[in-house]
Design brief:
By secondary structure, the chain is of the alpha+beta class. The chain is about 30% helix and about 15% strand.
Length: about 325
């Protein structure tokens, strides 16, 4: 196990705190995620990053489309008639309370049917390698401006340097590749991480400033983030970020899991399946493997209320196996 921050030997911050850490931490060490110098750490910048991360992701999906068009020499409208970019992502809180995303991004042929079941591989030259190249161009270029706070310097949110891309394959044979099953477990692992893991007190919204006094069981760094949310949320120039409403999420107002419309089945269909299953269970009847299809097109376009077919993260050829992008904020 390597030391935490063994560099900057002898260096100290303006407050006299050593700028490095030579300790070897266990997984349950409470010091993990804490700043080396709380006075130097910009908690307001981290709160603003969490608040702007969903908009940064939205702009990134647009930038990927445009980067693909530049790589193949097509206008954006022409590109959309050939391929579409589909994705599914989950948000994870790092130990320091900063949000970052794990995403599965896939290239599909632009079929006329909008049903997720009608996936088709994209035409040449749209491959996983081309999608990875587009990601490499789009991610560093995307920025989201932040409203200036009390005449302070202009700020913007951007992705950090940690962009970890892996191709997803139907098997795990190729070196450095990820299988669809590995990715499913990978996404599920991070989908379970939320602010509740920091301690009690962040399982609901804060209704008033008095609620800040009940956070004494949380780590000191997390408390400072919550207080920064509440303080910044009272400023008129940041009213649109709704920081007080999302103070219990350290400023992050997005959903833990999002996807493009055509990536896979929808939450509406899954909710219908759960409702149908619950009704049959209350009636004391055993739910069959399949029920009649929901209202919609017949044939292979059907969405079954129960017994939803498990769809692999990449099907029908390697061209659908887009890279797994990990974008971390700094």
């Amino acid at each position: 196990m390597l030391p935490c921050h063994p560099y900057r030997q002898g260096a100290r911050c303006p407050h006299g705190v050593r700028a490095g850490c030579w300790h070897r931490h266990d997984e349950d060490d409470p010091r993990l995620g804490e700043p080396l110098c709380p006075a130097c750490y910009d908690v307001q910048a981290q709160v603003l990053w969490n608040a702007l991360a969903p908009e940064l992701w939205r702009r990134t999906t647009i930038a990927i489309q445009r980067a693909l068009g530049r790589l193949v020499g097509l206008q954006e409208g022409e590109l959309r008639r050939l391929v579409r970019v589909s994705y599914a992502k989950v948000a994870e809180f790092q130990r320091r309370g900063a949000i970052h995303f794990h995403a599965v991004i896939r290239l599909d042929a632009a079929t006329t049917c909008r049903c997720p079941g009608c996936l088709a591989p994209p035409p040449e030259p749209f491959t996983a390698g081309l999608l990875e190249e587009a990601l490499g161009q789009a991610v560093p270029a995307v920025r989201v401006p932040c409203p200036a706070v009390e005449g302070g310097p202009a700020r913007y949110a951007r992705w950090g340097e940690q962009l970890d891309v892996h191709n997803i394959t139907t098997g795990g044979d190729e070196a450095g590749e990820l299988s669809a099953e590995q990715v499913a477990g990978y996404i599920a692992k991070y989908a379970t991480k939320a602010t509740e893991s920091f301690g009690s007190g962040l399982d609901r919204r804060l209704a008033a400033a008095d609620d800040l006094d009940g956070l004494d069981q949380l780590p000191a760094h997390v408390v400072e983030l919550v207080r920064a949310c509440w303080e910044l949320g009272g400023r008129p120039e940041l009213e649109g970020l709704r920081l007080r409403a999302w103070a219990h999420m350290l400023g992050f107002g997005g959903h833990w899991s999002t996807k493009s419309r055509r990536y896979s089945t929808t939450f509406t269909v899954l909710r219908r399946a759960r409702v149908a299953f619950a009704k049959r269970r209350r009636q004391g009847r055993r739910a069959p493997g399949r029920l009649r299809p929901a209202r919609g097109r017949p044939g292979r376009h059907r969405r079954w209320l129960l017994g939803l077919r498990r769809r692999r993260l990449c099907d029908r050829g390697g061209a659908l196996a887009g890279p797994l992008g990990r974008c971390s904020g700094s």
